[in-house]
Design brief:
Chain B: One of its GO terms (biological process) is SCF-dependent proteasomal ubiquitin-dependent protein catabolic process. Chain B: Pathway: Protein modification; protein ubiquitination. The structure holds two protein chains of two kinds. Chain A is of the alpha/beta class. Chain A has helices at about 15, 120-130, 170-180, and strands at about 35-40, 95-100, 110, 145-150, 155-160, 165, 180-185. By secondary structure, chain B is α/β, with parallel strands linked by helices. Helix content of chain B is about 30%, strand content about 15%. In chain B, the strands form two sheets. Chain B has a 21-stranded mixed sheet, covered by helices on one side. In chain B, strands 5-7 form a two-stranded parallel sheet. In chain B, helix 8 links the parallel strand 8 (about 185) and strand 9 (about 210-215). The longest helix of chain B has 13 residues, at about 245-260. The mean pLDDT of chain B is about 95. Classes of the chains: A alpha/beta, B alpha/beta.
Amino acid sequence: MSPQLAKPSPESSSAGLHFNDTELTLGLPGATKSGTKRGFSDTVDLNLRGPCNTDHASNPSENDVSGDSKPPPAKTQIVGWPPVKASRKNVAKISKYVKVAVDGAPYLRKVDLEMYGSYQQLLGSLEDMFSCFPIRNYLNERKLMDPVKGSDYMPTYEDRDGDWMLVGDVPWKMFVESCKRLRLMKSTEAIGLAPRASQKCTSTSGSKSL
Amino acid sequence: MGYSFPEEVLEHVLSFIDSDSDRNSVSLVCKSWHDIERWCRRRLFVGNCYAVSPAIAIRRFPELRSVSLKGKPHFADFNLVPHEWGGYAYPWIAAFAEAYPWLEELRLKRMVVSDEALELIAKKFKNFRVLVMYSCEGFSTDGLATIAANCRNLKELDLSESEVDDVSENWLCQFPDSYTSLESLNITSLSSEIRFSGLERLVGRCPNLKTLKLSHSVPLDLLPNLLQKAPQLVELGSGLHTKEVHPDLYSKLAGAFSGCKGLKRLCGLWDVVPSYLPTLYPICFGLTSLNLSDAPIQCPELIKLVSQCQNLQRLWVLDYIEDTGLNALAESCKDLRELRVFPSDPFGQEPNVSLTEQGLVSVSAGCPKLHSVLYFCRRMSNVALSTIARNRPNLTRFRLCIIERFCPDYITLEPLDVGFGAIVEHCKDLKRLSLSGLLTDRVFEYIGSHGKKLEMLSLAFAGDSDLGLHHVLSGCKSLRKLEIRDCPFGDKALLENAAKLETMRSLWMSACQVSYRACKLLGQKMPRLNVEVIAEQGHPDLSPDEYPVEKLYIYRTVSGPRSDMPSFVWTMDKNPALRSS
């Protein structure tokens, strides 16, 4: 499918010719215009899918299946909509904002951990945030993401003690309380982090220079 | 003419002229008036810190005492501007440190301010009095400690909505014991604990303290003491949260509030315990401004509170107020000028409160002085908008946010074009407008033909084609700021109205259909504009020229392209001959 004038399709394979999946691109990780995408969900063994996935039943956040395939709330969020300031987002609940950095990307985003009920909602939202393009309504369709096996990026976080941990290690509420910031780390660098099963007190050094 | 008008007389006359636009007019009369005026101008407002360089500002106005600067575009508030975009205050402050040793006031909005910048302020300006940092970031309590320790004549310190790195809790104690000039303190955005004894002593020794806005970490039991030490307060921001309700604390608080006879403005009330609300009743009659947008107070309590505030001019509240609360407001508060209703659960799929367009219609009918509205709701109709427009032709600011995108008139299922059309048609002095809901190009036709005084327009998920943008750019004579996201506007309208952009402060467009080619063309055609392309996915040269850019920020400037851009922002070349490709 070739790009049409003024309505290019970012996933077109001809656009893909401009890119390698390797580090030559200045773009974000996952910004390969061929439409492939690493799925963070794989790192925590969750089956995080978009609304068109056939196995919704395995997604616990879609328990209220009424057949209308309404995606879980965290995934329908558009950046900056509705236009409420971060400080105001949801008065009914407390908020906990943490910065999210992605290795290789020159900018940060922030997320409010209190807005999510589980790892899969958080990771789904991160996928949206750091995906190819923002969701564009004028194309009258939503982006469909296909998670890719063997992701390049591991979601990690710095906890209260300054240690870097893999996201998903501890129960969700404990994570929300102790997380100071998030970092989507290149898998190659994440090797030094505490292996999943080990206790925190026996973790290898949480080097801040990671 | 055989004589010249004495300069001193002109200077004296000019000292009565405060408004920037009047002073600008004065400076256009003739060269000598231009020269006299620039030497006696004391206040400068720079709406876009990249529109002019510090050097140019200093060269023109050598004797400033007060400067206001704005940095990031407004959409930064909603996470649409990448984090490292810019808006650095340091270069300005460093330049001022050399040029204006007598600078007294700095007001910064949406800028990045470092601790080094704060240190410069603290050490270089001997008579520094006012520091306002609204929605800024980049500094810590260490920077604040330096300010506290050095600024002997500080009157105002305002950190509203700023992000402060809390590294030390005793920065307030850095104000020396001899320091007594504080008049206004706003530390609502500080999240960690502060030394309360320091705060109490500070409040106790500053007899002119009129504004005290505290963070939510200040416990309720401290409040009566603070209020007793500062009964002259005019503005208070405080939490009213406590773990248990103590009758003792209750009566102390009630007594303390009654003692604040001059209290006019109240905000905060996070985590309010409803049983403490009656302590506020004695002051309600005197209140002109009430900001309950952080307070999860439910409708019945809200009604009780608000119906006692007969002198209220400004109300900011959550949608917990519901239609019934707004009806009560319309009956009790006949002096209301400004209403803002914020969503308590903006991301919820279903409405959690019974607040509809009816509430706004009631207020528009009952409050004759209402001129400024910000309203979040979940449904709207053309007939309601038309009614509001007819009721309140004196509206100057109208911002409506229907939470669900593309939401049509809930009665007819038509677009809301006609309703917003009525607003611009009847409200002839409308200066600011934000649209939402299902909208076609038609609404822009109305806006273009009627919005002659419109200065700021915010659009999201609206319109059908370039024609929409064309109507706005060609019709709105007074337009200064235009911010657009996710609208199908593209090259044609932008290029045809290129000249218009030089009459505006700025244009923001994100997730629209403006091609990279058009951006380059615009950059070449209009050398006095900075056409900035923001591309987080990589250099736009890597994709075909027809591809739309992610985000575009265009602003007029006399200083050329900026030199502090991050790696994902590019200014389009003004001189194509210099480009190698």
